[in-house]
Design a protein that fits this description.
It is built from 3 helices and 4 strands. The protein is an alpha+beta fold. It has one domain (2-123): 2-Layer Sandwich (Alpha-Beta Plaits). The strands form 2 sheets. Strands 1-2 form a two-stranded antiparallel ribbon. Strands 3-4 form a two-stranded antiparallel ribbon. Helix 2 (29-62) crosses helix 3 (88-100). The N and C termini lie far apart (37 Å).
Length: 126
């Protein structure tokens, strides 16, 4: 991956999003080392970010006419929603369906999402 990045000056996620790394050709060890680290991590971490973005796009459509399930926050690779107590089960199904839908790639392992709920973010229960 480092060699490929050095040749092309970028790396790509499996969905084709590019991260340009001009520092990969730097003569300064620190800059080059940092770019090499990004070249290794980006394809994997970037695909995770791509999958989350696709899930958010699906959720935008699924929740279009719903005012009882409100997305309020993202925390790394998690989405936080405000949901009425009597709608938690229904909301969980909608969100998990959107998050676990496979990206437009063949050969990937199935995506698995987990859901938790609670009155406060720090006190969530699965």
């Amino acid at each position: 991956m480092k060699r490929r990045a050095r040749d092309a000056i970028y790396v790509e996620t499996a969905l084709g999003r590019r991260r340009y790394l001009p520092e990969i050709r730097s003569r300064e060890w620190g800059k080059r080392s940092s770019a090499e680290h990004m070249a290794i991590n980006t394809p994997v971490q970037g695909l995770g970010a791509d999958c989350l973005k696709l899930a958010m796009a699906r959720l935008t459509v699924a929740l279009k006419d719903r005012d009882d399930i409100r997305p309020i926050l993202t925390v790394h690779d998690s989405l936080v929603f405000e949901v009425r107590d009597d709608r938690i089960e229904e909301a969980t199904k909608i969100v998990l369906d959107c998050m676990q839908a496979p990206p437009p790639l063949k050969g990937l392992m199935p995506l698995v999402a987990e859901a938790a709920y609670g009155k406060r973010y720090g006190q969530l229960k699965e």
